[in-house]
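Chapter review: from sequence to fold.
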Amino acid sequence: PWFWSRLGLGAKMTVIVVIGVVSLVTLFAYLGTAALDESTQRTLQERVILAQTAARHIDYLLASIENILTDTAAQETWSDSERIGAALDDAYHRLSFYGTHVFLLDRNGHSIATQPQIARTVSFSQFASVSAVLGGQSFAVSRYKRPLDSIGSSTIAAAPVRDRSGQIIGALVVPIDLTGPNLSTFTHPIGLGETGY
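The token string follows.
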């Protein structure tokens, strides 16, 4: 155009160099941004995979607890007052990998026996999982980790205990600490961090 033809050789060279430099800077900025975005997306995808793997591990643990707890609670020995101690010992032996205590509750949700024994009475009134199994649900796990008196914060897994006629007479409860040494051996070395919540 007329403007270009009126410029001198030095000005033309300057314009060409400026356009070239701006083009190169823009290209490199775009490539850098694209690479950063791709790296961020890859990192986030890896975190999602780690979180899904940890969730599957917890699902596996809860399924194992459900199988053992419901099978133990289904034993007929719970309706025989003379055999409750032995039944509770057996329950603790089977469930001690997942929790530090096993509680036998009555129909009202009050603790009537514990293995190992503790001095204080523990209240389970704040746990919906206990109410659910006393209401007829076959197995329940509390959705939140809550303080449990002297035992510390725990997630509660519960299964109903029935008499010989099939009526619910109480519940078998195990507090689960998902951050305990037995249960966190899988997730601990992964280090999910805050972004893996």
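Two observations follow directly from the output. The first strand starts at residue 102 and ends at 106. The mean pLDDT is 80.
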